[in-house]
Design brief:
It is a single chain. By secondary structure, this protein is α/β, with parallel strands linked by helices. The chain has a single domain, classed as TIM Barrel (Alpha-Beta Barrel), CATH 3.20.20. About 35% of the residues lie in helices and about 20% in strands. It contains nine helices and eleven strands. Strands 1-2-5-6-7-8-11 form a seven-stranded parallel beta sheet. Helix 7 packs across helix 8. The longest helix is centred in the middle third of the chain and has 18 residues. The radius of gyration is 19 Å and the shape is globular. It comes from Pseudolysinimonas yzui. This is Oxidoreductase. InterPro entries: AKR, FDH-like, NAD(P)_OxRdtase_dom_sf, NADP_OxRdtase_dom. GO terms for molecular function: oxidoreductase activity.
Length: about 280
C-alpha cells in the first residue's frame, strides 16, 4: 500500500521487534528495484542472543515478539560493525542507504567519537551513503550537527504542531550546516493522530496532560474551519521548514499506510498555516 502510494523511503532498526521489522521490510522490498527506494536502519542497540528466554515475550520494550535476544548498548567500532552486519543479513541487502546512531541519550562520549567514526568508515567503504543520529533530544542532535561529520538527523517529536522546540536549536544549525532533518513522531505518540482529540489521548507514550489535550483540540478546530483535519496538518507541518527533508509515519496496517499518503497529499490552504 505504501509503495503504491508513492512512498520510497523506509525506516527500520534492530530495536524494533528484535530484528523482526528489518526482516519484514527486507522481505517486502526484495522484488523491488534497489535503486528505486531509500532504506535507513540504526546502530547502538546490539542484539545479543538469549535462547533461554525465547519462550517469553519482549513486553518490557512493548514488542509482542519472542524475547530470543536482548538489546545491549554498544557504540564501539566493533559493536557498530557487528550491528550493521546483522542488519544487512536480516534485510537481505548489501548496502543500507542511511545509518543512524539510535537514541544515544546517555552515551554522548562513545557515540560522538567511536560511533560516528565507525559510521564514517562505513560511508567511505560504500556500505552506506549517509550517516546521522536519531533521537528526540533536539539540543543533543544540535551538538552532533555542530561537532560531527554527519549528513542527516532523525528528530522525533520536537518539531510538531504542539512542540516546536527544535526551532530554537536544531533546525537553524541543520540549515546552516546543510544537514537534512527527517521529522519523526509527527503525531506526538497519538495526540495529533485523530481529527477529534479524545480524552484519553496519548502524548510521549503516556496519557496526555489536560493542557495539551485542550491545545490539540484548539488546533483541530482551526483545521476544521479550513476544511482539513488535525492529522493532515500534523503530517505536512514539519515539511514546510527548509531543513526538513522527509517525515516518517508509523503504520500498523495497510489502512494506516494509505491514510498517511492521503494526509500528505491533502491540499491545505495557506490561510490555515497563517492562522496556526
Amino acid at each position: 500500500m505504501a509503495w503504491n502510494g508513492g512512498v520510497r523511503y523506509f525506516d527500520t532498526a534492530p530495536h524494533y521487534g528484535l530484528g523482526l521489522s528489518e526482516r519484514r521490510l527486507g522481505a517486502a522490498l526484495r522484488d523491488r528495484p534497489r535503486d528505486e527506494y531509500v532504506i535507513s536502519s540504526k546502530v547502538g542497540r546490539l542484539l545479543v542472543p538469549t535462547p533461554e528466554r525465547a519462550h517469553e515475550l519482549d513486553v518490557a520494550e512493548h514488542f509482542l515478539v519472542p524475547a530470543a535476544f536482548e538489546r545491549r548498548w554498544d557504540f564501539s567500532r566493533d559493536g557498530i560493525l557487528r550491528s550493521v552486519e546483522g542488519s544487512l543479513e536480516r534485510l537481505g541487502l548489501d548496502t543500507i542507504d542511511i545509518l543512524y546512531l539510535h537514541d544515544p541519550d546517555q552515551h554522548w562520549d562513545a557515540a560522538s567519537t567511536t560511533g560516528v567514526d565507525a559510521l564514517i568508515e562505513l560511508r567511505e567503504q560504500g556500505v552506506t551513503r549517509a550517516i546521522g543520529v536519531g533521537m528526540n533530544r533536539s539540543a543533543m542532535l544540535t551538538d552532533f550537527v555542530r561537532q560531527c561529520d554527519i549528513d542527516v538527523v532523525m528528530l522525533a517529536g520536537r518539531y510538531t504542531l504542539v512542540d516546536r522546540s527544535a526551532l530554537d536549536d536544531l533546525l537553524p544549525a541543520a540549515e546552516e550546516r546543510g544537514v537534512g532533518v527527517v521529522a519523526a513522531a509527527v503525531y506526538n505518540s497519538g495526540l495529533l493522530a485523530r481529527a477529534e482529540v479524545p480524552d484519553d489521548a496519548i502524548y510521549e507514550y503516556r496519557d496526555a496532560p489536560a493542557d495539551l489535550v485542550r491545545r490539540a483540540r484548539e488546533l483541530a478546530a482551526i483545521c476544521e474551519r479550513h476544511g482539513v483535519t488535525l492529522p493532515d496538518a500534523a503530517v505536512q507541518f514539519p515539511l514546510r521548514h527548509p531543513a526538513v527533508v522527509s517525515a516518517v509515519l508509523g503504520a500498523r496496517d495497510a489502512a494506516e499506510a494509505a491514510s498517511g499518503v492521503e494526509r500528505y497529499a491533502r491540499p491545505i490552504p495557506e490561510a490555515l498555516w497563517d492562522e496556526l
